[in-house]
Amino acid sequence: MQRYYREECRIMKERTNWLKEILGGEFLLKEGVKKRLRYVAFLFLLTLLYISFNFVIEQSLRREGSNKRELKELNSIYLTKSAILQYNSTREEVEKRLEQMGSSLKPLRDPPLRIKLER
What we know:
This protein is mainly alpha-helical. About 80% of the residues lie in helices and about 0% in strands. The protein has 4 helices and no strands. The longest helix is centred in the middle third of the chain and has 56 residues, at about 35-90. It is rod-shaped and about 120 Å long. It starts with a helix and ends in a 19-residue tail after the last helix.
């Protein structure tokens, strides 16, 4: 039992040492740095590209959200103005405004007559 426990401790130390080497950068200090330099530079470049692409995508998503909000607002303004225009275009409203302006125009009492021409 104790031997099994010691073996587990040794494996855990090896794992943590390996993790400490990678995260601490100690693996770069060992021999063969020149061999790994291209690989590290490649990983660094990929990381920079990943961060920059994420930044660009986040900006475009923010812009898209603000455009959607603006579109909703403009659509509601359009619907409001359209409803006001339809209301103001009704016959009764036009007659009221003509009376307020003092116009001499009066609504027709009889329907218009159709004139037929004989040839």
